[in-house]
Amino acid sequence: MANVDYVTIRGASLADALAALKAAADVTKVVERPRSTTLLNSDERVELSASPRSWEPDTIVVEVYLGGSEEEQLALSRRVYDYLVENTDWDVELDSDNAEDTIASRIRATT
After folding, report:
1. From first to last of its 111 residues, what are the pLDDT tens digits of the chain?
2. What are the structural domains, with CATH classification, of the chain?
3. What radius of gyration, in Å, describes the C-alpha atoms of the chain?
4. Pick from 4, 44, 54, 75: most CB atoms within 10 A?
């Protein structure tokens, strides 16, 4: 079974999150599905799937897939995470089904 990394975004609309993800992963094609949006780039091994959480408003979960080594996939996931941290004010978390704990997390303080 393929390893999946997860980038969870809190505090963003789906449209804003998709725009940021397009820039972060050099997306060239967007495929709308009934419950998620699939983002593809020129590397046919790369796929990001973004889905809003119905029970958690303003939360989007991005599943990151890369048909390569675990190191390559984590590098892509980290690039997406780092882009979001550097270019947005959203809460962002990076996790993997291959990790025992959260890999990285940035939570903005609310006032």
Report:
1. 457 899 999 999 999 999 999 999 999 999 999 999 999 999 999 999 999 998 998 999 999 998 888 888 889 999 999 999 999 999 999 998 876 666 777 787 554
2. 5-106 (3.30.310.80)
3. 13
4. 4
User: How far, in Å, CA of 110 to CA of 81, rounded?
Assistant: 20
Cβ neighbors of 88 (< 8 A, separation 6 or more) are 12, 16, 20
Q: In this structure, are residues 79 and 24 in contact, taking their beta carbons and an 8 Å threshold?
A: yes
State the pTM of this model. Answer: 0.89
Q: What share of the chain is helix, strand, coil (3-state, %, to 5)?
A: 25, 35, 35
